[in-house]
């Protein structure tokens, strides 16, 4: 994984916060994702397929999720409900969708987002992939974006067939 693969996601987070949430954010130092946390999180996950494979996960402490979604829809939330779950799914969808448009050399498809909640969930690395965690700080709360992405290697025959049938 290199900067060209990660920068579209970082830029998408900044654009989302500046345009939709009218909120400035700062980006922390990316690092390999750590396992195990005792905090309660909401994790929005979306899969990538096409000429790359991967996963994008937005990891939000509950208070950050309540603040962000509340700010987005103009309401105050005290607890996680269906609106918060849907909002976290939409946030990760917007980040991944915007990042997808920034890739010039890849054709990327997105899965439907999934949101999980709890203290026992971890986003784990798939075989031959590594999650890079990018921490962000904002006035609405801290959060992380985790990205694991790798190119899909197809044979010349498969590439030719895909071009003919596609």
Write up this protein.
- The chain is α+β, with helices and mostly antiparallel strands and 166 residues long.
- It contains four helices and eight strands, in the order H-E-E-E-E-H-H-E-E-E-E-H.
- Strands 1, 2, 3, 4, 5, 6, 7 and 8 form an eight-stranded antiparallel β-sheet that branches.
- Helix 2 packs across helix 3 (82-102).
- Mean pLDDT is 83; it is low at 156-166.
Task: Name some characteristics of this structure.
166 residues; alpha+beta; Chemotaxis protein chec; 8-stranded antiparallel beta sheet; globular
CATH hierarchy, class = Alpha Beta
CATH architecture: 3-Layer(aba) Sandwich
Low-pLDDT stretches: 156-166
Oligomer description: single chain
Number of helices: 4
Elements, N to C (H/E): HEEEEHHEEEEH
The chain-level mean pLDDT equals 83
CATH topology: Chemotaxis protein chec
Strand runs, count: 8
> What is the CA–CA distance across the termini?
27 Å
User: What structural category arises from helix and sheet content?
Assistant: alpha+beta
Helicity range: 25-40%
What's this, in brief?
It is built from 4 helices and 8 strands. It is α+β, with helices and mostly antiparallel strands.
How would the blueprint of this fold be written?
Layout (H helix, E strand, L loop, with lengths): L2 H17 L5 E3 L3 E2 L8 E10 L1 E10 H12 L8 H21 L5 E3 L3 E5 L13 E7 L4 E9 L4 H10 L1
Antiparallel strand pairs: 1-7, 2-7, 3-4, 3-5, 3-6, 4-8, 7-8
């Amino acid at each position: 994984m290199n900067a060209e693969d990660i920068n579209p996601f970082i830029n998408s987070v900044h654009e989302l916060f500046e345009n939709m949430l009218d909120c400035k954010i700062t980006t922390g130092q990316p690092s390999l994702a750590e396992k195990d946390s005792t905090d309660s999180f909401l994790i929005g996950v979306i899969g990538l397929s096409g000429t790359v494979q991967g996963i994008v996960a937005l990891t939000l402490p509950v208070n950050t999720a309540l603040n962000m979604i509340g700010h987005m829809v103009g309401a105050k939330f005290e607890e996680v409900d269906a609106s918060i779950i849907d909002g976290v799914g939409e946030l990760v969808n917007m980040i991944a969708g915007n990042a997808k448009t920034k890739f010039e050399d890849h054709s990327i498809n997105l899965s439907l987002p999934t949101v999980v909640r709890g203290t026992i969930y971890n986003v784990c690395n798939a075989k031959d992939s590594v999650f890079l965690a990018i921490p962000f700080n904002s006035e609405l709360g801290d959060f992380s974006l985790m990205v694991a992405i790798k190119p899909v290697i197809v044979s010349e025959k498969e590439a030719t067939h895909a071009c003919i049938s596609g």
